[in-house]
Each structure stands twice: as structure tokens, then as C-alpha cells.
Amino acid sequence: MANAGTGTGLQLRSTIKKDGTLEISLVDVATPEPKPEEVIVRVEASPINPSDQGLLFGGADMSAAKTAGTADRPVVTAPVSPTVLKAMAGRLDQSLPVGNEGAGVVVQAGASPAAQALMGKTVAILGGSMYTQYRCIKAVQCLVLPPGTTPAEGASCFVNPLTALGMVATMRAEGHKALVHSAAASNLGQMLNKICIKDKVDLVNIVRKPEQVDVLKRIGASYVCDSSAPTFMDDLTDALAATGATVAFDAIGGGTLAGQILTAMEAAANRTAKEYSRYGSTVHKQVYIYGGLDRGPTSFNRTFGMAWGIGGWLLTPFLQKIGFEAAQKLRERVAAEIKTTFASTYTKEISLAEALKLEEIAVYGKLATGAKYLINPNKGTR
Amino acid sequence: MANAGTGTGLQLRSTIKKDGTLEISLVDVATPEPKPEEVIVRVEASPINPSDQGLLFGGADMSAAKTAGTADRPVVTAPVSPTVLKAMAGRLDQSLPVGNEGAGVVVQAGASPAAQALMGKTVAILGGSMYTQYRCIKAVQCLVLPPGTTPAEGASCFVNPLTALGMVATMRAEGHKALVHSAAASNLGQMLNKICIKDKVDLVNIVRKPEQVDVLKRIGASYVCDSSAPTFMDDLTDALAATGATVAFDAIGGGTLAGQILTAMEAAANRTAKEYSRYGSTVHKQVYIYGGLDRGPTSFNRTFGMAWGIGGWLLTPFLQKIGFEAAQKLRERVAAEIKTTFASTYTKEISLAEALKLEEIAVYGKLATGAKYLINPNKGTR
Fold it and tell me: Could you give the CA distance from residue B2 to residue A20 in angstroms, rounded to a whole number?
């Protein structure tokens, strides 16, 4: 049974053509014979994260997407504007595989003991090219899930859990005592709440709708501020003063939120100021933008003194900075708590072909909180 | 002659009243008897820096300023908008002295040898309250100017020179190999060019008018980009690619320039990129905003990957970070090169009373490049 199911497998590909057309399609790829240190994983679950959609859609106008091909081999095309096309110069005419992470069962293993030890195990992988039926990967890159864990349960072991853990670790490393998170009702945001409750770290949650306040309150969040409320700036300042949070992780990116957070942090700092300082408070206030749910421009008024920073934050450089050993500890914590702290929920499980249906793209492409899709590349194949 | 000229002296004061009125006036203050470690300096030159104007005008609408009082004791008033008034809560109804730096002659000294050694010397001071005729200060805070240096020549020993030196030191400390400076034709910008030419550091100058290109080219600048030119983004990208500059110091603050600099840095980095990276180049790109010549909002499009930062930069925290010894070395370099690298030029020398004339405020309040004023609190008194 060492070769069960292998041979060739379907893989999702995204190509931006020089003429300004995005093409998403499925191709048959040969499953390679694993080298001694490698295994073949039958991928059964891979989430569609916001971080996957940049590569998948390449900034194309998906509202103008068209579909062609057959039900088994659909082909989606969509126009890419000249401006976006310029930014995509590095990937033109390349057929790129997609899917950062996922989980599945090891169905074939190379000769090495490390690879052989994984035969039949359910493992999680962060390696790219996961929207594929069979993924060849080094054994060392496989995170073995605890017995009784399904691929669907282990599909999101990396991007959201390590990002959430990375935020808390960054907060500590840079000397802050509490943190702020925006788009806080997301899967990631709920996970961050569970971590912070467990680790006794104060977290200020910013959500964009009243109903999301309840979602977070139900899982035990102490501080939830609704940016659509007229009292938002006062609510946020109160929460920042209560927690002393001086670092924020912002998934929105565009608009005025990053600046509003800094302004509220400054107001909170000045509540305890003893004398007037013309350059504002001396405490460093930091906002890290790690997502772009709002793709519009970021705008702020610099009404928060001179001790501030706004910058990009990304998981991979963070993991490189802390090193393999420290990162491995984080990964092991995720595996151990995959059904509790790091549990993810999905709206729908779809096949690779279903991922190319325009009506599904219209739903998962919106990046709406609470509408998260899981691709099962082997759905219906067994 | 130990008490020559002392007794009382005029001092400029700025007050924002609770009712929303800024009042700038002159008051008579008693010159204290210096303690053993102190000296009395007869201030003869103190520049009006952009950093002084925040305290002086307190965000009031100076276009609506009125004048009262006498020619010798004028009183200027101007309205402060409710929004600005809120930000000024920490200074309401306080009569604040103004003037960060200046130079003058030591006319009285305390009993300590350090103080006595300064009698008759021309010294420069960074200590605040310099728009005053007689300034009592610790001897250790006086920077003795080389023989033959006038107070006017030594008036700007600190803010601009240390800021320019601080930019180069920050560039080095954070691992960048060249730097960018905006509003580069300013006194500070010209100084930075002289430092960079002398120290063989590549500097990319950004100016806002064609004629400012010539100002900098004449003093030997290699890279000058005019943001009013249609080719600005291409010119800037070329200069960044040629120099490898990945840190910028921006005096403008508002508008789109900070984001444009990051975008051009990213484009320059991608010219040498070997493969497509969906998160952009991995080189960290940083813009420090150290001024606010444009007081409007800062806006950017995040078209520069994820490895970027924008933040405030201020001289005092920089000096605190490097420590007294390192800062003292910088100060000594400034004194030694005060007539060359760190020479400043002024449009006009005015008295304290003249500084309160509306027609003068209309000129120096504009913060225009090449219109820098020097206050001589003892003008006409000798």
C-alpha cells in the first residue's frame, strides 16, 4: 500500500498573463517518487486564508471574472488593471501553485527512518502548493498531529496560530505589556483571545460591527471596542488606559484606524502625564499592519507626539528572527492545543473544482469575518 | 565688572489661555545670582527654528493675529481653534519661555572653578528659555566656542547640527548604507550635505522646487530629486538604486511623500530581485518623520511590500539613547567645525520686540526655506 493513490494528482494554479488576464485552472501533476528524507501527503484540508488570496487572485477584478472549461476542469479568467499588472511584473506568465498550509495523511515515505516513521500519520504542513491532491515534502517539515485529530482540524496549524503567538511574542520582545488587535472577531482574533486569556495577557479587541462584540464577549474577551460606535475613540482610550497597551496589530491596513489607535494610545498616556511636553508622551507607541482587509490608502493625522511607529509585520521574518528552536516550540504548542486554543471553524468544505466556481469565489473572496472556506483536494475521491 | 548688565532682563513668553487665545509678550525677569556651578550668559543670538514655533505659536491661527501694547512691550494675540486647544490642555494658562538654543557671552560666574573658567567666553547653549536677555545656566551645559567665533556664528550649534549628525548616526546604527532627506535645501539639509560629503556617505536630497536643486548642486550634492518634476518617481528610484539608501528623514510629514519614498525604495530593491516574492522585497525600508512642514494628514498606499516602517524621530531621545559621552563627541565636532560644516545663514537679525511685530511673524512664521531669522535679545542695548 506504499503507493496508494499516487501517480498523478490535481493541482490548482494561478497565472497572470502579460496581456492582463488572470487565469485560475486545475492541472494534472505527476506525483514524484519521494527522496529518502521526503514523504507524500494526501492533502485533505487546506484553508483559504486572506494571505492565500493575494497569490490566488493577483489583484484581478474578480467581479468581472468569467468561467470556461468543464465541471471537472474549470478555468476562471478575470481582468487585471494596468496598475496592478505593473506590480505583478515578477510573476507574469508563471503558472503558480497556491495554498500556504494544510493537513493530510502520509501515504508514501522515503527510505529514511524519519520519513518511514510518518507512514499513515496525519500531519500538518506549512509549505505552499497545498491546493493539490498529493504533496511531496520533507519529513522534517511535517507537524505530526495528536492521535484522533482529523486533517480538517489540523488544516490551520500554522498561519493563524503562529501569527497569533507571534503577536504576543513580539509584544513581549519589544517591551509592551498588553496589545491591541483589529478585525478581532476573525478566526485569528478569536484564537488570540484564547491565547491571551490562557497566558494572562491583556488584549484590547477592535471590531467593526456590534454583533462581533458579542462573539468575542462569549469567548471571554474583557475589552472589545466597536469602531462603528460613536463612542469608539473614548471606549478605545479607556481600554488602553486600563491595560497600558502600546502595541497594536492591525489587519485592516487602509483607512484611518492605525492613526486612531495611536491617537488613543497618546491620549491614554497623557491621562497620567505630570507636565506638558510639547512633543507628546515619551512612551513608544507602535502599530503593525499585518493585513489589508481595506486595500485603500492608509491615512493619519500625526496627533500623537513623536514617539510612534507604523510598520509592516509578517509571520515568516518573525519566525526567522526567533530561530528554528523557538519556532519549533511554538509549533508544538499549536499541535498540543489544536482542538482547544487553536481550533478553527469553517463555513464550508469545497473541492478544488468547487473552489473555481464563481458563486463560491463571490463568497470566500469577500474576506468576510465568519465566512472561511476549507479546500479538500481529495473531496469525493475516496 | 562681574555683574555687568545684569539685574533684570527682558524675556519672551507664550501663553495659551483657557478662552482660546494665544498671547505672546515680553516680561521683565530678575536675573538670579548664579550658584557656584552656574554662569549668567548675555544672550546675543538665538535662531527661530521650526521646533521653536510649535511652542511659540501653539497652533494658533497667526493670520488672524492682532497686536497691542507699546513698541517696547508689544503684546500679540491670536485665536486658537477648539481642536487645537484640546491638544494644548497641558500648557493652558502657563506663561512659557521660548527658544531652544542660542549663544552669548558669559558675564557673571559662580564660585566654582568650572564656572569661573568661563568668564568672558563666548558660549553656545541648548537649554530652552533662550529668547531672553540674561540666561542663568550650569557651566557644564555651556559649549565654549573657538576663539574668534561670534554669538551669531555659534547660535545654531545644537538643533540643526546634532539633528544632521543624528541622522547619519541613526543610518549607521540601523544598518543602512545611505540616506534620504526631504526639504533638503533647508539650513539643516545643506549642513547634512556638508557632513555626508566630508564623511563619504551617499545622500539622496528631495527638494520641492527647481531652484532648490541648484542650491544643493552648488554645495556639491550628487543626488537631488525635485518632487515637483513629472519625472520625480523615476528620478528618485534611480537615485535610490544607485546609492542603496533604505532610510529617509522627512521634514514634510503630511501628504504622500513618505509613502512615495517607500514605494521608490521598493522599486529600487526589486530592480535587482531574482524571483517574484508576493510580499515584496525583504529589505527593511524606513522613513522617519522629524518635522511637520505640511501639517495635513499623512497618506500612503502600502505598495511597498511588508518590510517597512514609518515613525517619528526626535533629537532628544536620540541623544539619550547614545549617552552623554557619545553626544559630547558630537557637540565637540560641531564647535570645531562651526564656521565650515555647521555654518548657518540668517535672513535677518531682530530684537525681542521686533520678533513680536506682525510683519516679521508673517515672514518667519512661513517656515520657508531660506528665510531664517535670528533673535538678538540684546540688540541695540550696547
Answer: 82
